[in-house]
Amino acid sequence: MPINHRLAWVSAVFLLFFLLFAIGGLLPGPLRNAIESWLGLPFSVPPVAHFVLFVAMAFCLPWAWPRLQMIGTLTIMLVLGAVVELLQEWIPGRTPSLNDFLLDSLGAGLGFLGYLLLIKKQQKAAVSFNKEN
Q1: 65: which DSSP letter?
Q2: How far is C-alpha 36 from the geometric centre of its chain's CA atoms?
């Protein structure tokens, strides 16, 4: 896949995950509870969503915008998590949560680590391919 197409896809995936996180994080409490009840899952959605979405976003962000590097990626991810948590102060039925922010941070770190491991694997494959040819 050409690099421009890959960047467009990864950017779109990041945006999708960000929208899911922002919408879920800013839903009023009663609506969020009704949706969670309707889903009928055997676990609480918010903690899992915080962690999984931040893993995915932190994996996609440096892949889409490589110039960010580690500090830029983690800063953006932590700011996103903090802003959504702080905005919950003014949303009916919601309160900011340090635990959610910690899950965001852990997910962002793990997602970026996954990105680094993938890049390292790709670089090793490229080096071994070049040695063979």
Answers
A1: -
A2: 20
Q: Which run of H or of E encompasses 74?
A: helix 69-87
Rounded-to-integer distance, Cα 76 and Cα 80, Å: 6
pLDDT digits (tens, 9 = 90+) for 70-122: 899 999 999 999 999 999 999 999 999 999 999 999 999 999 999 999 989 88
Q: What are the sequence ranges of the domains in the chain?
A: 3-132
Per DSSP, 40 falls in state: T
Q: For 16-28, b where at least 16 C-beta lie within 10 A, e where not — what string?
A: ebbeebeebbebe
Structure-block tokens of residue 129: 């391919």
Q: Is 99 helix (H, G, I), strand (E, B) or coil?
A: helix
Evaluate whether 25 touches 85 at the Cβ level (below 8 Å). Answer: yes
